[in-house]
Structure formats: structure tokens, C-alpha cells
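Re: [ENG-882] Designed sequences occasionally contain unexpected residues at chain ends

Forwarding the minimal case from QA. C-alpha cells:
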């Protein structure tokens, strides 16, 4: 099983194994990262967590930290899951990445602004659910579109 299928491809916890996959073009990673940062920014702004520039900065910061954590935390775990559990590992991996992203990003957002915890966690959960749904849609589409544009 290709680890590429098991990892969310964005500036998020699941990026660790994807960075080691030479078949994933850098442009694909950049486009997906931009889509995720913008989608999470819009959710934070829509929920009135912060003004747009501050929401953009917060989204960029939490996703960068989440990615760095993912590189350290998940590289080994992803391969272990795939080899030990087979196809069921894909679902377990996505759930693990989503839960890790929510925990990491929620903690950072709580430190960035003194909003009530309920508001911060609501924004974090909604932003990450939106970004993971976007990923499920974008992962099969973006590489194809980019390769067509580059030709």
C-alpha cells in the first residue's frame, strides 16, 4: 500500500510521511497547503475569532507548527500502521491526523488569544473538519490539474 494514500497532504500533522514520498510534486504540496490555510482562515474569520489578517496569521502559524510536529510524530507511526494493519490503517490514520491537528492547533490558538475555551475549540474543530473535507476532495484532483497546467 502506498503511504501517499494514507496521509493528508497539507500543512498539517499528516505531512510527515508525504515529505518523504518522492512521487509527490512540491507544487502539489504548496497548492494544498495554501488551500488549507485559506480555508481555516475563512472559518476563523467567519466565526469572528479574529479579523482576517490576524486569522490568516494564526492559521499559518498553527498549521506550520502542526506540520513540524507531524514530521516528527507521524513518520514512524504511519509506516507502522500501514504495515501492521493493512487497509484499515487508512481510516485510522486520517482520524489520528485529524485528532492530532485539532489538539495541537487548539492549544496554540488558546495561547494566541484570550477567547473563551468553547469559542477556541469550536473554531479549531470546525476549521479542521472543513480542511480535511477539502482534502478528501482535493487530493485526487489537484495533482491532475497541476500536471495539466504545467504541460
Amino acid at each position: 500500500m502506498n503511504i501517499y494514500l494514507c496521509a493528508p497532504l497539507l500543512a498539517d500533522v499528516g505531512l510527515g510521511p508525504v515529505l518523504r514520498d518522492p512521487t509527490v510534486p512540491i507544487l502539489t504540496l504548496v497548492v494544498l497547503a495554501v488551500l488549507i490555510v485559506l480555508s481555516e482562515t475563512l472559518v476563523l474569520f467567519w466565526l469572528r475569532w479574529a479579523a482576517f489578517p490576524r486569522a490568516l496569521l494564526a492559521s499559518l502559524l498553527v498549521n506550520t507548527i502542526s506540520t513540524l510536529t507531524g514530521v516528527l510524530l507521524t513518520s514512524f507511526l504511519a509506516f507502522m500502521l500501514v504495515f501492521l494493519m493493512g487497509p484499515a490503517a487508512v481510516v485510522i490514520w486520517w482520524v489520528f491526523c485529524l485528532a492530532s491537528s485539532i489538539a495541537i492547533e487548539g492549544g496554540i490558538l488558546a495561547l494566541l488569544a484570550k477567547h473563551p475555551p468553547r469559542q477556541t475549540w469550536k473554531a479549531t474543530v470546525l476549521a479542521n473538519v472543513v480542511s480535511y473535507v477539502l482534502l478528501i476532495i482535493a487530493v485526487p484532483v489537484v495533482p491532475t490539474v497541476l500536471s495539466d497546467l504545467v504541460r
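QA comment: On inspection the terminal residues look reasonable. The helical segments are 15-19, 26-46, 52-85, 88-112, 117-150. Proposing we downgrade this to a documentation issue.
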